[in-house]
Write a structure and sequence with these properties.
Distance between the termini: 13 Å
Strand content: 5-15%
Radius of gyration: 19 Å
Number of helices: 12
Order of helices and strands: EHEHEHHEHHEHEHEHEHHEH
Largest sheet: 7 strands, parallel
Strand order of the largest sheet: 6-7-5-4-8-2-9
Shape: globular
Structural class: alpha/beta
Length: 333
């Protein structure tokens, strides 16, 4: 069943932006309560303790539960679920913030941009994958990767970071490369976070793509990054905060996109690693909150649950977290 825990109260989209100067929206793709339990059991074992050690995810003071059925089906996907979070209404499976009547809904990120806030979209999945796309695109199908990619630059958002692009030259590989289009439309493109941090001015639009990419143009699993050029989700968030910070504030959506991938792969070790990567990114936002307590809102949620993760008493989680699974597929929700 695709149900999930929403770790803070998800208010009407305009409420976020009107109430707070700085808004962080963290989405653990495919992250159910059982994934949080698994990760917190791992933290306890790592510290030599019994039971569970509270993660940054669970330290948020307001907790609630929510079901995730979409407009036309009991079981949702990341397109419909991400779009519901982004726009505050239900969508059909596979849609990206799309309305058949032509009156396309406006995401919270677009509302924030119209108010003069800077906007950042970050994911360990490809930047034109379903969840990131829900915040800047309007498409009838999540598989319209090239058309979604064209709408990325049309959004005029200030920071995109993480994975690469699916179908960057179209399905037939005969379209103009999306990165070339982005550069022509004023985006600075980087594979180095240090280069972004070194910019003399942060009044620029940037796109960061991790130097090493895995299948489907995603950032490699944390467990696989040891010997590769590596940027954690926390490092990307840290860089984005510096780039986006300004007197009018910012809205940042951060997706732990490969929690879902690992669950589809039945790869519990990689789930733990991706949960850790996601949780560490939340810690960066919390550091910022401590400096701006009366102006910052942090929301942590999931779009749905994937895989039906469960705990058994004889699992040694620390060894599991270091075990690489090689039976991975590529069908994600």
């Amino acid at each position: 069943m695709k149900k999930f825990i929403i770790i803070a109260i998800l208010l009407a989209v305009t409420t976020f932006v009107n109430a707070q100067k700085y808004v962080f929206l963290f989405i653990g793709d495919g992250m159910g309560q059982s994934d949080v339990d698994l990760y917190e059991a791992y933290l306890a074992e790592k510290d030599g303790k019994e039971g569970f050690v509270q993660s940054n995810i669970s330290k948020i003071p307001l907790l609630s539960m929510c079901t995730t059925h979409c407009k036309n089906r009991r079981i949702t996907d990341s397109g419909a679920a991400g779009s519901a979070i982004a726009c505050g209404q239900k969508f059909n499976v596979g849609e990206i913030s799309y309305s058949e009547d032509g009156n396309q809904p406006k995401s919270i990120a677009k509302v924030a941009k119209e108010k003069g806030m800077k906007v950042g979209i970050i994911s360990t999945a490809p930047m034109n994958h379903a969840t990131p796309a829900a915040f800047y695109a309007n498409q009838a199908s999540r598989k319209s990767y090239y058309q979604i990619g064209l709408q990325l630059s049309e959004s005029n958002f200030d920071f995109f970071g993480g994975g690469g692009l699916l179908k960057p030259t179209g399905n037939k590989k005969d379209e103009k490369d999306l990165m070339t289009i982005y550069q022509e439309e004023g985006y600075l493109t980087f594979t180095s976070l240090k280069a972004i941090a070194a910019l003399k001015s942060h009044n620029t639009k940037v796109i960061f793509t991790n130097e090493t990419l895995d299948r489907e143009a995603s950032i490699p699993y944390k467990i696989d990054r040891e010997d590769l050029p590596n940027n954690s989700l926390a490092e990307i968030v840290e860089t984005a905060i510096v780039h986006l910070d300004n007197p009018k504030g910012f809205f940042m959506m951060v997706e732990g996109g490969k929690i879902d991938y690992a669950a589809h792969d039945n790869d519990a070790g990689s789930i733990i690693g991706e949960m850790e990567d996601f949780d560490n990114a939340i810690a960066e936002a919390y550091k910022f909150y401590l400096q701006h307590k009366n102006e910052t809102l942090i929301i942590i949620t999931a779009d749905h649950e994937t895989g039906g993760v469960s705990l058994v008493t004889n699992q040694t989680l620390e060894s599991l977290a270091n075990r690489k699974c090689r039976c991975r597929n590529s069908e994600q929700s």
